[in-house]
Amino acid sequence: MIKHIVLWKLKPENRLVAKVKELRGRLEALQEKIPLVVNLEVGVNLASPHTSHDVALCTEFRNLADLEAYRVHPEHQAVAAYVRDLVEERASVDYVF
Q1: How far apart are the C-alpha atoms of 77 and 46, rounded to whole Å?
Q2: Which of 7, 12, 63, 96 would you call most buried, defined as having the most Cβ atoms within 10 angstroms of its Cβ?
Q3: pTM of the full predicted structure?
Q4: Coil, helix or strand for 78?
């Protein structure tokens, strides 16, 4: 299994509750739209907003090929384009578990 974790620091003007809720909804919808996703969680940071990332996406895939297919999937690409406009910083890690 492959774990794919992405962390985003939102631009200050995008840290509004409504924008974060919309972002979370779009991310969570990916599990229904892309069958390759085994599990998907979205977390919104609760503490240390000035020193931490704001949103975390944790996804699981059966193998690296499924992760690569997810990355180029049109539904993922659409959400990724939306996210790029909201963020000022991104970090990610992929690992076997």
Answers
A1: 27
A2: 7
A3: 0.93
A4: helix
